[in-house]
Amino acid sequence: MYPGRFGLSEAAHLLRRAAARGRRAEAEALAEAGLGPAVARLLADPAPIPPPRFQPKSRLVPLVLAWLRGWLATETPAAERLALFWHGHFTSELRKVKRPELMWRQNATFREKGMGRFGDLLRAIARDPAMLLYLDNARSKMPHPNENWARELMELFTLGEGHYTEADVKASARAFAGWSITPPKKGPVRFVFRKRWADPGEKVFLGRRIRGGEEVLAILSEHPQTYRFLARKLLAFYFHPEPEAAMVEEGARVLKDAGTREFLAWLFTHPAFYHPRARFALVKSPVEYLVGLYYASGQTPDRRAMRWLARAGQVPFQPPNVKGWSGGLAWLDAGPLLARINLVRPFAAARLDLSVFAEGVGPEALLHPRAQLL
User: N or C: which end of the chain has fewer CB within 10 A?
Assistant: First the structure.
């Protein structure tokens, strides 16, 4: 537990990292509550976000605006920043999935299961229609199963590179053959197991004998390397771009033993989280930057937000590839940085409460270096 005084500065830091939005009065309320209650308040069970209304020729815009507006209105904004993390981890892309309602359902899964145990979220994503379409498993069948999901499951979602073999990829692909979806033209799309496409034979995966995909997920959900990989990514997202090895190991144990909510509570009460080295050490992604601005101004996002996100390099539901967005200092390259500077104009008439994020108030505070950081 953080042994120092939990004052306004510490509360503002917590609010930035947990929610990516906030006003001075909210930081003051957290400081008055104290560290433990403040963390518990931020990590409360997530509130649902109203789904978008899709129109025949408009698919992406309603998705993005519904999420942004929900993030601004919700009483549990920390759940939305965590959903953004999972969206960048378990990526899917509307361009390929083509069905916006499936992308929204996946986003809701991140919100509903994102704070629980990773194994539960992993099993849900393995059956998620958007993911099955995006990584081509919806059509995977024997004798030539598709390897995309099997490979990314280990390389990007659980173990990381160097912790599996090509033989493991092939065994996993065989195990997931037949994990598919119902025909999109026959009502709501859902997961279905097509037994006639499957391989019921024995396989060897990570040195263990298995038959089906459930066993693959169970092995990965128990593997210590999965939690080291995840802990490092979560610490880079919430704490520091280069977390110490000891923090990674400690965080991995908490994540494996207790779950993501407990991991975040551990981090948000850790002394290192409030050290000067950790403060303003992360670059805001365009989504986080825009959410903070809209919240500070009290304005509602419209189609202009879509144009700005495209210029800044991060449109939700359209990641550049299966690895998601690079993030970090790349957000401050010439093009994205110019987009941020140009964003001052639309907010010029607003009196922005940016005290949680930068020095001063009003549009001029947007040009302060700290306004780009969490």
Answer: N
